[in-house]
Write the structure tokens for this entry.
Amino acid sequence: MSPDAIKVLKEKVFDKSKWMQLPRDVVIGHDVLGQVVPVCEDLKLGKSAFLISGKSTMERAGRAVQEYLSRSGSVQVFIAEEISPAIIKEAEEAAQGADFVVGVGGGRVIDTAKIVSYNLDRQFISVPTAASHDGIASARASVPTSEGNVSLEAHPPAAIIADTGVIALAPHRLLAAGCADVISNYTAILDWELAHRIRGEPMSEYAIALSKMTAEILVKNADIIKPHQEESAWFVTKALVSSGVAMSIAGSSRPASGGEHKFSHALDLIAPGKALHGESCGIGTIISMYLHGGDWRGIRTSLKKIGAPTTPADLGISDEIAVEALLMAKTIRPERFTIFDTGITKESAQRLVSMLYSE
């Protein structure tokens, strides 16, 4: 589905200059939520905060952030249990008088804060409570619609404050999904290079180098990614931030989103709610790496080590649904050329899914 079909971002005035927006302050570590005030002072964000969180994440981290911010200014809290055009509009109206926005929660909360702050021309601070995907640091925001998720270009956070103690307490499934999302950078850049060779699509060597290095680090250190350990949370969060920075350098999601992401979005349409974004991207990465002629078994082994699914059965879906998603992938963002757009037939899709189970 094209992003043009959903109108939640306000039009910006055309400007020939190109800006590379990156997070200015990144704080990752144990018990760092209290750093929100020094960060706000360093960035000169103002005294009036609009804090967006969910019900559960408000209790896990939002209350603490609210208390810290209230010591030096005013804080207005908005609970967003989901992300939708209606919720975004409601939040924008409520945030009119705020100097800056703070998103405390998972991907939906962070994406809501990202869009609200973009539309109001405010800076925002990303305070993730889980390391499930690279949206905690990127300019991209995903908004679900009746026709599937739409990926939108907004702006990256001015700062990221990631408390590894909070993130380590989240279900390990979320951390494993975050790992898989970063590992998918491997095939995303292969698709980007393919599009450059075949269609002359411009590419950024710097963004590719950073994206590849980030994926390689996680693959090589998959053994240390363990449930509910702060070291693992710290390691994965740093990788997610690096992946987000690569996208900011590129000015697009290309360094971290290729055919494997198109497969993931197709699966969301066919079997909504069955897989986390990073989980389905991981499976798509195995298939894409096979098609690119790379070490798909090594990717699969790394995903297994971190506890991420590697087959449709692991997700609780049938092989037939995975085949359907593979065939549908080429219809997702057709302007983005990937190896999944080179003519996969039903028979080849069936073989590719069967390959996932092979020794």
